[in-house]
Amino acid sequence: MNETLVAVLAVLVKAVIIVGFPLAIVPGLIYLERKVCSYIQGRIGPNRVNLTIGHIDYLLPPSMRGALPVGLARFKLIPGSLQPLADGIKLAFKEEIVPAQADKLLYFMAPVLAFVPVATALAFIPFGTPTWDAFGSGHVINLQLASANVGVLGLFAIGSLGVYGIAVGGWGSGSKFPLMGAVRSAAQMISYEIAMALALLSAIVTAGTVDLQAFVLHQATTWGGAGWLMFKQPLAALIFLVAMFAENNRLPFDLPEAEPELVGGYHTEYSGLKFGIFFLGEYTAMILMSGLFVTMFMGGWSLPLLIDPYATGGLNALLSAGVFLAKLFLVLGFQIWIRWTLPRFRYDQLMSLGWKKLVPLALANLVVSAIVLTFVS
Amino acid sequence: MTDTEHDFTFAIDGKSIPARKGDTILKAGLRAGVFIPHYCWHPGLTVAGNCRICLVHATKTMPPGKPVIACATQAVEGMEVESDGPRTKALREGVMEFLLVNHPLDCPVCDQAGECDLQQYSFDYGRATSRFHEPKTQRPRKDLGPLIRFVGNRCIVCTRCVRFCEEVAGTGELGVVGRGAMSWIDTFPGVQLDNPLSGCVADLCPVGALLDRDSMHTTRVWLLRGTESACGRCATGCNINVETWNDQVRRLTPRENQAVNRWWMCDEGRLSYKEAQAPTRVRRARVDGREASFLDALTRATDEVRKAQGGVVALTTGFATNEELFTLKALVGKGPIAVAYAPDGSTFKARDGFEISRDKNPNRKGVEAVLGATDAGEAAVIAALEAGKVGLAIVHDGVPGGAPWSPTLLAALKKAAALLVLAHDDVPGAPAATVLLPAMHWTEKEGTVVNGGGRVQRLRAAVPPTGDARVDLEVLQELARAAALQPRVLSAAGVFRKLAAAAPLSFDGMDYNGLGALGVPLGEGRAARPASNGRALPVVDARTGYEAGPVSRAPGRAGDEQVRVSVHRESAVGYGTPRGDL
Amino acid sequence: MIHAAHDDHGHGPHAHGDPEPAPGESIADRTYVPAVLRGIKLTLARFLQKKFTVEYPEESVYDASYADRGIGASNPRHRGEHILVKDEQGREKCVACLLCMAACPALCIHIEPEPAPAEWTDRERRPKVFEIDMLRCIYCGYCEEACPCDAIRLTPKFYQPTTSRTERVYDKQRLLENNPDAQVPQRPRK
């Protein structure tokens, strides 16, 4: 088969996967969020909108319907699993209310701005081995959509545009609470991006590359496959983790939408599907940041003893993608867990933590790393 | 009572009480605002002194230290009465215990419950438990007359009813039969309690022994909401409470007004609220004989007024309020107005001066005061109709059962280009209307009437108009507005203000709210005006509605407050009202 | 430290100064890390513990082990729907005294009294209309308490779904025939 054709085809397939991925797992993530939340609070959580075995009836030809025993047909696959679908339908049918004072263009653009850059930045995350020999055809495919050698920078450059969605949404709503939410959000993201970038620099210095696939390979090949940067650079990993929460506007740093103070924050004036897209963008950003953390600090798709980073086999590639997914959900789960554990910071505490603790710490970490690496190696 | 009006003072519980010579302790005390419980005593009746609940300790009595009944003991100068102390409390407790020996305590099914003196005093002065375990006596339960049921077991033989029939009604149907615990009230053989004032004995009865058969077992007194109004049944204009529940009049009870009805009202008036619920009542508007919405009918009527271009004549009755008459007068301009009066009915003169008027028109005096002489009105109306100059004839017939229009007038009405009838009842012989609108009953009306004694009194709306009816006064004013005679529709108070200004001789200086609950005589508006700026509201102790029984409305206790504001004791203190005002 | 008091609250003129450590607070505590770890340990324990939620319509709320505490719908002491009690002759015991109506804090009872038929020698009045708006009722039991004739009672019946609001207004007939045993059975609690 033509080499170029295969490459184009591979890119198209990967693009579909990358765009489809957040759309596919965000409902699951919402479900996970609600379940974890309720379990932590001693409740059961959504369990009324169920996918049951009986639903298979709808797929069967009419003559075979109702053949399942009632007990079996009523068996719930995952209790409440269709709740996110119900939520989505609800959002879709909500009345779209546009405030009279809104700047219409900005107001309609904001949700898109909040979602598209974040989804685009996902292209830089490697989700599997770089050397998959596609179905033994001899075509080697890198399981990463945009294999740029400035991956980290590209990801940051595009991903950071997400804040415009929030800022524009707050401004365009023509209402004071969204504006305050947006201002807070912008200030918070800029502040924590510095600490985050400094932490990343330490990681970059350690790995000696800005290519994300190379990052994974570095971690998979040093220290016997366990050279994950969270072990090599624990402080940087911690700072990145903390900054990640702030970047995603998640508790304990969800000040842009602090309900008691700001009603709904930047999306106060949004309803229906526009709100839904904000929602989607927020969870996609969570996936992006978790993916980045997995890639940079947790060895990405690699796992010692299970995955050979240079193998070309299909099983190996599949396993690597699975490992990546598992690690991703681990981090996502951790984010959710933290959200329902910690209370919200006060704004001055947030700024104080960002500028006075994380930035100097990250800076010191970077200097120490640089010195150590220069003199040790 | 000002200081100059009393002859001497004595003291009740240390409070100095001014009294006139001959005053009893109870009377002087009540007048000064010191409440002493009483069952058998009533200001309109002679003193019987048989219930003993008003027992007090007093100095200057013979023999010294013996408790005396406050209702029959004359106060003397320097007397010191103990009405609120442990000794009197023990006396009253003892009296209550005796009164309750044979009382069935069936308050839950007794219609008096909630306005029962026995219940109230039992709560105030009685023992919590009974020491008697003997069977209670059984006394008869029977209908004494068409309006009164007697429940013997509840009777405490205070003889208020007996004295009323003897001293006020003068018919003397009732007497006490039996002896001791087995004595009760009954009619003399072959006699029924059917005098024209018989309903008053149910009001007088301090317990549930005499009940009004009309309203019996249909409601509970704590649900009733009273509206201070005047009876619109005859020219006496008794002051009454229109008591309602669920927007329906449930009963009428008299209100004390010494200048009009003292404490009484007649049976005819008492039952007159039923006219408002008569099946013949006009409930829907009609245009050209077909049912129409009220708005359509009113629009048609206003169109006719505009078309008539001043060629308007009016027919009204002695039942219309002064405000309605005034508006009608403005509406016809120089045109003629005919007035129909209800024929004379039965009269009755009580021994104490209370009289049921022969004149059954509640507002004949008002018609004279507002419209002037109207004797020639009917002839003028007929003449105008015969001449064919009438564009619109307005018939304001708010008389239950229909006003007695003369046949010649009815025949002449057919010549009017358009005929607007405001009718209370749909009866044979009523004018055939172009536009028929429902008129209000007097329990639904707001306005003033002048009784036979020339007293301007207020009717107050106690219930909303029946069916589609709207306020008559507003309908007439809508017509006046359509004819560009007045810019907007006013309330009854607003029309009365205009009336008072337009009729200086009779309504001079009168203020609608200043008429108060008791009314003001014609021509005395300026004299009756309160000396103050009229804004200050007398503060009275507001209790919960459930307590507003006969004790609080008992004779001697009811003040003549013109406006009553219910404010909770604590709130009033919060508003800065001095405690002494409560 | 004069300004220490302000710093604890983080506002005032010295809000941006680092707060003094509270007594007994180590450097590790000040990084928040131990506190966060304690927090996530606690939430993890909560996550794993048994849930108390009762899936009500399918599961019975009644738990025998709580019977003495008076909770649970099958508990005979539960205050649920009313019944009007009948006497030996099958007539309502109610004499329309309206005391329940007066006692009701939710104003959900509406009674219109009428004189009893002449052949009923034991009473003079009876209810012509007796309606309870079960949607308004707060099941406080004051009506039961106020009734001098033991004519109204609250039963443990509480499973009461309807498809319209008007059905929740019970008239006299329905109250007389209300059967506390006609409750939809539920499976016992897991």
Describe the protein's architecture and organization.
The complex is a heterotrimer of chains A (377), B (582) and C (190). In chain A, the strands form 2 sheets. Chain A has a two-stranded antiparallel ribbon with strand order 1-2. In chain A, helix 1 (3-40) packs across helix 12, helix 7 (176-207) packs parallel to helix 14 (347-376) and helix 12 packs across helix 13 (314-339). With 377 residues, chain A is mainly α. Chain A has helices at residues 3-40, 70-73, 83-93, 104-121, 151-159, 162-172, 176-207, 212-221, 229-232, 234-247, 259-262, 272-297, 314-339, 347-376; strands at residues 51-52, 76-78, 132-133, 140-141. In chain A, 63% of the residues lie in helices and 2% in strands. Chain A is globular and about 70 Å long. Chain B folds into 3 domains: 3-99, Roll (Ubiquitin-like (UB roll)); 103-222, Alpha-Beta Plaits (2-Layer Sandwich), CATH 3.30.70; 279-525, 3-Layer(aba) Sandwich (Rossmann fold). In chain B, 24% of the residues lie in helices and 18% in strands. Chain B is built from 16 helices and 25 strands. In chain B, the strands form 7 sheets. Chain B has a 7-stranded mixed beta sheet with strand order 15-14-22-21-20-16-17, sandwiched between helices. In chain B, strands 2-1-5-3-4 form a 5-stranded mixed beta sheet, sandwiched between helices. In chain B, helix 2 (86-99) crosses helix 3 (117-125), helix 7 crosses helix 12 (472-482) and helix 10 (377-386) packs parallel to helix 11 (407-413). Chain B is elongated. In chain B, 48% of the residues are buried. The model of chain B is unreliable at 531-564 and 576-582 (pLDDT under 50). The model of chain C is unreliable at 1-15 and 67-73 (pLDDT under 50). In chain C, 21% of the residues lie in helices and 13% in strands. Chain C is of the alpha+beta class. Chain C is built from 6 helices and 5 strands; from the N terminus they run H-H-H-E-H-E-E-H-E-E-H. In chain C, 19% of the residues are buried. In chain C, the strands form 2 sheets. In chain C, strands 2-3-5 form a 3-stranded antiparallel beta sheet. Chain C has a two-stranded antiparallel ribbon with strand order 1-4. The interface between A and C is medium-sized, with 19 and 19 residues.
